[in-house]
């Protein structure tokens, strides 16, 4: 892993020498949006789409929160993107007026869109790009303001809780409904919103719920950077009443609950008009707790092993392996789709497995000598020890199996899923994580059993990658993926999303560049593994083991820094 220097971007951007990747926070603000609501203003949400390397397909990257009743939203949620100087990273921002709780964007009113590249934002003066929204002929859709700020490599989060005391009364028939808005100061002296608390109804002495925020979002890792907090009285129509404000810094807040963290809430207009004005109440920090976010690599450094298992479809729908039309055909000139998928994924995962021994299974074939159908057989012919030495060993066992078994059917996934799940169930301490790669050509036959197996496996340290090869329709596989709707079986929902499905045809390079095809496939199917891995560890409260000390050759003195 390359360690990237962390720099704060100033008004003039100096591109770093390639290759270089950085984390870039993209902040979004809109001005003068279309009003699609009859009796109130729009309730906007912004959706960010990106394009993969060499791929024109737009894929949803993320969504902001919804802000009610406004035509000038300043969104709290930021998008964190890797910035690559050597790539053209196309971005598309779509804006919608939310009309219901549906996640389906077609159910909401389209307000406009804007296209740009990440380099275009970063290269603009002050890394601030302002563009008109388009997408609706004959309409002025408003303006998008996009800011990019390179983030400090800060992995700390802080849990804070505040309370208010004797805040100004703003409501005629009752007390105030106060909430806090936090702003991070930027290099150019402007402020960017980074958090809103919930509203506490009808009180002048609110106690807000504790909240967790990354330190990089609060101050970009600069402990002395100004943090501005504004106090408002919530109003249903969105015209919230300003109570007052105060400023602090991360360093001041880090002192915790003390006399230093009791802040006077000041309304500058009142202070300018009234000589005897003191304040509009006080806000007190009740608690401040720092937590360091652990990453996938922290566990790998601590010794967690990734165990890789492959399961290959040997059903008759693949075609006769001796014929060039078969998906299993072994051409002397190039790898078939099964071999390419296996090699693409396996060669990356094998770096995280110390012994490089991988179980390789097949399903849907008749086995010698009696021709019995099996949905869980060892490719190397040894059911007691299905392990193969390295990815090359798996490839060799696959080729040998094609010569000895008879392709048959049906296409059953549950036996191989249960096979890996049995091993995963025996090691739940975080020392091992299991990844099963299933490569298949057709429609699944045991859908109900497979869904039950996935639901059962979702509480185990394992992930499942399914790669579809060939021209078949794979609609059923999308249901297993669980990205949009969490998979369930017999009324029981999967604890985590552990399945990633992709059709290989989406990654084949049209120019015949199979290396590029394999790189694209591996990049996509492995993308969810770190998050799935972390979701298991976090829900189980498993911390990474300490990294072992650096290796010292025999006879060399251990160097100690004084």
TrEMBL record:
The keyword Calcium applies. Residues 3-123, 125-263 form the C2 domain. Keywords: Calcium, Metal-binding, Repeat. Residues 545-556 have a biased composition (Pro residues). SUPFAM superfamilies: C2 domain (Calcium/lipid-binding domain, CaLB) (SSF49562), vWA-like (SSF53300). Residues 543-562 are annotated as: Disordered. One of its GO terms (biological process) is cellular response to calcium ion. One of its GO terms (molecular function) is metal ion binding. Transmembrane segments: none annotated. Residues 307-511 form the VWFA domain. PROSITE patterns: C2 (PS50004), VWFA (PS50234). Signal peptide: none annotated. GO terms for cellular component: plasma membrane. Coiled coil: none annotated. Belongs to the copine family. This is Copine 8.
